[in-house]
Amino acid sequence: MVVVVAALGTVAPTRGDARPTRPAVPAQEDPSGGTGYSDTAIVDIPVEVSEGQPADVIGTLEEIEVNVSRQLADLQAADGAVDAAQNELDEADAVVAETESHIDVLVEDSDDVVTGAYVNPPADALLDTLSAGSANDATVKQALLSMRAEEDAAALAELEDARRQLEEERVAQAEVAAAAEQKRTEKEAQRADLESATSQQTDFVLAVSDRLGAQLAEAEALRSIDPAMAATLEQEQAALAAKLKEIADAEAFREAVAFLEAETARLQAEEEARRAEEERLAAEAAAAEAARQRATAGPASGELATVTCPAGAGTITVDSGISAALQDLLNDASAAGVNMCGGGWRSPDAQIQLRRQNCGTTDYLIYEAPSSACNPPTARPGTSLHERGLAVDFNCNGGGVIPHHDSPCFVWMDAHAATYGFYNLPSEPWHWSTTGG
Fold first, then answer.
1. Partner of 101 at 20 to 30 A CA spacing, among 47, 68, 158, 179?
2. Half-sphere exposure of residue 188, counting CA atoms within 13 Å on the CB side?
3. pLDDT tens string 136-188
4. Partners of 396 in the beta sheet?
5. How far apart are alpha carbons 269 and 17 in whole angstroms?
């Protein structure tokens, strides 16, 4: 019998020493003397192992064996339910992510609408229409303006509709997530039930093995004194020995233990992943706190200050209210391998000269034409943030101004500039200001 019990013991979960401290197993009590069983997952034991009839002990062994198989089947079903719930949650997450991505595109479109209204306000459009060469030209221009207004309104309405849709999807996502969490909770409870059932089977088998060993030893001692009694004892225990061997050879118990071992490994991996995620979030929080401690663009002071560009690339003159933030931005960008400098404050005379260069030489083109009439677009004198020292045209890595949205300088600015209080004018990758205008 030592071989039979050892075979079972190689796959049995343990809670310390699984062998009972006494041969008897009172009814409804943990055979190991502990209290680790789940009451809903174990079998009532109505037999004293040391005194019960072999048939009663065998019946209890069979009942416990069936219980382990049932608990395993329940856990496997719970595992499948968790997988199905997770698949449903993945689908809900994908729907939300798709809508969020769509909103990002719509937000960019709406930003273009707002920027267009800022750069070319309705008054500019009206002046442009009034300056048309003929009534027919004015009619065509007004029709184009109306068409653009309708397109802009449609873009903003689509954004609002998408945001409402996202809220509905997030509510559904939360409901699916709650259902998935409930399935995981149910699976964890079922896993605990299977552990209790397998522990009970292990402990009861060990208790029966102890009885069998004691009875066979007694038979051996009686063999020379009372051969008939010895034979009777051996015959009575033969059925128990056969049942124990059958259990040791059965696949059900091994399958249950293998499933539990896999679950334990999974839980350990999840715990390690959770700790890694906590460490990552802590690192991000620390980085965010460091970012908050950086200088950010404050209100305009009306006074000018000079900021030094990294690597001796020059200086930028801006309003002193944003100079510290700009200095931090340039230094941090340089530390990331992106070296920038550029032009900030621009005098009114310089703005007039720029309008003359980009727009034309007549008074109308210099002082009144909308910025869109210029190439590149250039704000009217008195309206540019450059004249207030609140905007910077950045150049990139020793070259000209940031040329496009794929430039490494723009990519870095797009990811980080808002931290310092600077925002881009979408039509000009190089132009960043405190308002985005």
1. 179
2. 8
3. 555 555 555 565 566 667 777 888 888 999 999 999 999 999 999 999 999 98
4. 340
5. 27
